[in-house]
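Model it.
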Amino acid sequence: MELFANQKIKGLFTGILWCILSATLLSLCLLALCAEAASLPILLVYLCMSALILLLCYRYFKVQHRLMENAILQITEYLSGSRDITIECNDEGELYRLFHEVNSLVAILNAHAENEKRAKKFLKNTISDISHQLKTPLAALNIYNGIIQDEAGELPTVQEFCRRSEQELDRIESLVQSLLKITKLDAGMIVPEKSSEKIARLAERVKEHFLFRAKQEGKELRLLGGEELCLLCDPNWMEEAIGNLVKNALDHTEKGGLIQIEWRSFASILQITVQDNGSGIPPEDLHHIFKRFYRSRFSKDTQGIGLGLPLTKAIVEAHNGTIEVDSQPGIGTSFIMNFLI
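Modeled.
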């Protein structure tokens, strides 16, 4: 039987059987010697047998408990980040088969994690190389474009094409920079240098960056929140995250629109919200907006490359935060970032 493949279970049953047989034989001997006065001795024999069986069971389950506690400790350490764990499984039986399967699963997960780490590092290095190789031709194209623009003089058609060419070159540069940032975050090559930063100061810098564009497009940027509220973050990366949301709001808001950055604290979280009264996001797009290169067929933004929101999500998660979106078509959109206090 498979049950008795485990030597400890086999030993427990053998011990119990030995106790029962010994007590039975001793009781028969007592009955044979003195049947009339054998009741009390037989009772004592069976009490001793019961005590021995309880002792055998206690020792067996104590060993099993120790094995399970050790297995739980190893699994907990693995979940906490330790990758070098092994559960002892140097015996036979169902429990040790389970331990062996857990060890195999850990080995497979470690191999997958190592492969993913290598793949991310390769991707990061590849994109870094590509972006580096693109810098020189992009700079040259910008110079050539400027020279053509100067030489064009009063030729409106050439001037228009130069302007469009400059926009496309800016898009390529923006794409390269965004790809480089997001792959570095993915590969864990960037560790945010966190410090206590006033959110009002972060929001003010974001507002200053987009203020000229907002005025040109006839839109209002509004800040709302306490002056002393602080967030433990990397200020440069957090500005990038908030700035991407503000840019997205400007892209999808008509003239006269309002973009508001609001921050407030609750019992255990600090919340930053970027809200607009623009075109909103269709319900079928809400579950896809944080996917890379995703662009809605309803989007009016023809210049976007679909990396701003995924980059923002990566930055927020690097700060152990979460981001969610609430939107109604024709009414507006709110992006809510939550950080544990």
